[in-house]
UniProtKB/TrEMBL annotation:
<dbReference type="Pfam" id="PF13786">
    <property type="entry name" value="DUF4179"/>
</dbReference>
<dbReference type="Pfam" id="PF18705">
    <property type="entry name" value="DUF5643"/>
</dbReference>
<protein>
    <submittedName>
        <fullName>DUF4179 domain-containing protein</fullName>
    </submittedName>
</protein>
<dbReference type="InterPro" id="IPR025436">
    <property type="entry name" value="DUF4179"/>
</dbReference>
<feature type="domain" description="DUF5643">
    <location>
        <begin position="225"/>
        <end position="325"/>
    </location>
</feature>
<dbReference type="InterPro" id="IPR040680">
    <property type="entry name" value="DUF5643"/>
</dbReference>
<feature type="domain" description="DUF4179">
    <location>
        <begin position="41"/>
        <end position="126"/>
    </location>
</feature>
Length: 340
């Protein structure tokens, strides 16, 4: 597969520092996909977890290492350290599938530790161990990616976070929200690829089948809409899906066609509040775009055992002075009583 297809140049965007600070423990990119100029938005922060991990030296680099890796004394699952939006639910309901499959050569071992998939989201945790040490220095990190059924993932939301456990060990967490719910089958083929990783030359591949986790799915189609007084912008809540790994809200944002043509279409930030007053923002909310320009937005919230009666969506945008400004006209109450 062509590396350039996975590592295109990312152009500069206006990201408020306060928003970066809010998400300093999570690596998130939120893609504004398929702009006319081919621009992609990427927000990625390497996190510092402060964990310790004991290794048994060079004895780890031999055939059959998977069994030994299953007993590595991580203080808690990797997805917990990267604050995956579903981490509490994954741990409580034991939704992660333990893989412990590896590719080991040239002094580096890449091991896929745990994964989870529910049709809407995919989570993959990876451990790297190196005979001669590992480093996250930019010039040595290398290149890696994940495919589903042999194809690159084109998500609405995705991220990759990495952290050094010690001088010989790095953990990595990938998480994706797909562009469309259930766009893949119940059983999928996952492959994790690496090239020239952390100063070690070569290529690594770990491939395995993965089955969707069992759990209740609830779909709602509220089809409620609000429009600004000048009729420039409108916001429609198309559907809300509750699944084991997330709560997904699909939105349609309408605006004048010329904003597509001159590439000035809006990117709204959201705070979501349920009928009990629980607030979802910062680390409890992710947002991304699918399709052309900015018409289809996806919000991802943590999974919920109890479905609320409604959500209130509070949109905002960054004004000309670089500050977040609420758009009260587009506040939208989304009732959850029209289920499929």
């Amino acid at each position: 597969m062509n590396k350039d297809k996975f590592s295109r140049t990312i152009d500069k965007i206006n990201v408020p520092m306060e928003k970066l600070m809010e998400r300093e423990k999570v690596a998130i990119f939120q893609a504004k996909k398929k702009r006319k100029v081919g621009r992609t938005t990427k927000r990625s922060i390497l996190v510092a977890c402060g964990l310790c991990m004991s290794l048994l030296g060079s004895g780890f680099f031999y055939t059959g290492m998977a069994e030994a890796l299953s007993n590595i004394p991580l203080l808690r699952p990797i997805y917990k350290d990267f604050r995956d939006i579903a981490s509490d639910k994954i741990e409580h309901d034991q939704l992660a599938t333990v893989i412990n499959k590896q590719d080991s050569h040239n002094g580096l071992t890449m091991t896929v530790k745990e994964v989870a998939y529910d049709g809407n989201r995919l989570m993959v945790s990876v451990i790297y161990t190196g005979e001669n040490g590992l480093s996250l220095r930019e010039e040595t990190v290398g290149f890696n990616y994940i495919t589903i059924n042999g194809q690159p993932i084109e998500p609405a939301i995705g991220s990759k976070g990495q952290d050094e456990i010690d001088s010989n060990t790095i953990i990595e967490h990938h998480q994706y929200t797909f562009s469309t719910y259930n766009e893949n089958d119940d059983v999928i083929d996952i492959a994790v690829y690496g090239e020239d990783l952390f100063g070690y030359e070569g290529e690594w591949t770990v491939a395995f089948p993965l089955e969707k986790v069992a759990g209740d799915i609830a779909e709602f189609y509220p089809a409620v809409k609000t429009t600004t007084a000048d009729e420039v912008y409108s916001l429609t809540a198309d559907k809300v899906i509750f699944s084991p790994l997330s709560t997904r809200i699909d939105l349609t944002i309408d605006y004048p066609t010329e904003k597509d043509e001159d590439d000035t279409w809006p990117w709204f930030e959201f705070i979501v509040v349920d009928d009990k007053g629980r607030v979802y923002d910062k680390l409890k909310l992710q947002a991304g775009m699918t399709g052309n320009y900015g018409h289809h937005m996806v919000l991802t919230l943590p999974p919920m055992d109890n479905i609320p009666q409604s959500f209130t969506l509070n949109p905002s945008h960054t004004n000309s002075e670089g500050f977040s400004e609420e758009i009260k006209e587009l506040e939208l109450i989304v009732p959850l009583n029209n289920s499929k």
